[in-house]
Specification:
The chain is 37% helix and 17% strand. It is an alpha/beta fold and 311 residues long. The protein has one domain: NADP-dependent oxidoreductase domain (TIM Barrel). α1 packs across α3 and α11 crosses α12. It is globular and about 55 Å long.
């Protein structure tokens, strides 16, 4: 990855690859292990939403992150639960520990956080995973479960998750905890740059004090895949590829990880080859931003395409 080097995941201090992989597109374990061999070390796993897709890579995560792994300290394992009920948190965590055979999670996320969520309460409950506290009491209640029996009580006292994150679908909610949270997952792409206006100005620019920033949906905006131009786009004008979309996001100094949905090793190779090119040039960045505006509702309605001179 000579073009984009590993970087700090904000104030966590964790060293992360610029590309991360989420298993939502059903990547198989053999290809996830291949990604690790190619230098990717950030992996994202869901135990509830789209779990059937994520299951296909569970064996690889068990190999990389399980109790007997010789490379556990080289991997950053991020997990998520979309069950937004603090009272059910320990059950969701135990499912993840049981399925993956792990001792700890590097970053636990609450998923799909909207403006109406009680963000402070969710954050406070997740902190228990990091600090121990009442989690031990939950463990004693649930220790009859097979999953709980596989977890060492001493590890629970120490903390099940090293850091706490949230996957935000509300920038207002993200703003409300920006100084308290360890890792933020934010939607960001060349057609949706609202994060630059509403979140980035609140960052200090110091990785040691800012939360880690993981961006997702970098290659699509809603129903639109950004590597497929809108109808009527002039033939012959440049069209960004999916890896180009990754480069666009990673060219922003505040982005630590682009979470990808690569489905196989061919897509992994394509993404890594694009990253070898490094950050976008100024002309490339300008073009991609202008291309991104084509997906704004008013431009879609008016067929407001770029002129050849802007390509």
């Amino acid at each position: 990855m000579s073009g984009f080097c590993r970087r700090l995941l904000g104030k966590t201090g964790l060293q992360v690859s610029p590309l991360g992989i989420g298993g939502g597109n059903g990547i198989e374990s053999r290809d996830l292990l291949y990604a690790f061999e190619r230098g990717i070390n950030y992996f994202f796993f869901s135990s509830d939403l789209h779990h059937m897709s994520y299951q296909r890579s569970a064996e690889a995560l068990k190999t990389l992150c399980g109790k007997d792994s010789s490379v556990r300290d080289q991997v950053v394992l991020a997990t998520v639960s979309y069950v937004d009920d603090p009272s059910k948190l320990i059950a969701a965590i135990l499912d993840q520990f049981g399925e993956l055979g792990i001792d700890y999670i590097d970053v636990f996320h609450w998923g799909w956080i909207l403006a109406e969520h009680d963000v402070a309460t969710l954050l406070r409950s997740a902190r228990e995973l990091h600090e121990g506290g009442s989690v031990t009491q939950h463990y004693r209640v649930l220790e009859s479960l097979e999953q709980a029996q596989s977890i060492n009580a001493e590890l629970i006292q120490r903390g099940l998750a090293r850091y706490v994150g949230m996957s935000f679908h509300s920038l207002r909610a993200a703003r409300s905890v920006i100084n308290e949270i360890d890792v933020m997952m934010l939607r960001y792409n060349l057609a949706n740059t609202r994060v630059e206006r509403h979140i980035v100005p609140l960052l200090s620019g110091n990785k040691e004090s800012d939360p880690g920033i993981v961006v997702f949906n970098t290659a699509h905006e809603g129903i639109f895949h950004l590597n497929a131009p809108p109808p009527g786009y002039p033939v012959g004008l440049r069209v960004p590829s999916i890896p180009d979309c990754y480069r666009f996001a990673l060219s922003q100094p505040w982005v630590d990880v682009v979470l990808t949905g690569v489905a196989n090793r061919q897509e992994i190779d394509q993404a890594l080859a694009a990253l070898e090119q490094g950050p976008l040039s100024e002309d490339e960045a300008t073009f991609y931003r202008e291309y991104g505006t084509l997906f704004e509702p008013q431009n879609l309605a008016q067929n407001s395409w770029l002129s050849p001179a802007q390509a």
